[in-house]
């Protein structure tokens, strides 16, 4: 490895054993250029929400599949199979986004009921801690109007059961239903 007058590192292509490694350098440059173009044309637009750019670049996917498979077959670099999987994921993501966009456009109107459905559809669900989710699925959510609250003893027991190895939802549900009665909780 040497440094040029511009400050950039470069490899002259000669090893101590006298063999040239110019082919390896060319291969590294080609693979690096392929990865950069995949990042610029697919991954970055999807991460930044530029769906139109992603859709416009989808016609290039087959070309990239061919290049990735060619380089993988030639050099057996596992990272290239990860890029193939990412491209498949991004294709699925783009088709899902298209479906959602068509759903939004087909249900857009000035009707108040439709607007409420769109709001509910676009809002992500709020997740509680796992012990509260399990409690809700077994006993239901406490009703604030009836001044019901979570039974902390049950929550703590569910939490301790979650920390145990080989614990499943069915085991937790069976144990909690066996030892606690719904009427006694509230």
Features of this protein?
mainly alpha, 186 residues
Task: Explain the overall architecture.
- With 186 residues, this protein is mostly helical.
- It has 2 domains: 116 residues, no CATH class; 56 residues.
- It contains 9 helices and 2 strands; from the N terminus they run E-E-H-H-H-H-H-H-H-H-H.
- The chain has a two-stranded antiparallel sheet with strand order 1-2.
- Strand 1 and strand 2 form a beta hairpin.
- The model has no long low-confidence stretch (mean pLDDT 78).
Secondary structure layout plus pairing:
Elements: E1 2-3, E2 9-10, H1 22-47, H2 51-57, H3 61-75, H4 78-106, H5 112-122, H6 130-139, H7 152-162, H8 169-179, H9 182-185
Helix pairs in contact: 1-2, 1-4, 3-4, 6-7
**How many structurally independent domains?**
2
Distance between the termini: 74 Å
Helix/strand order: EEHHHHHHHHH
Question: Total number of helical segments?
Answer: 9
Radius of gyration: 28 Å
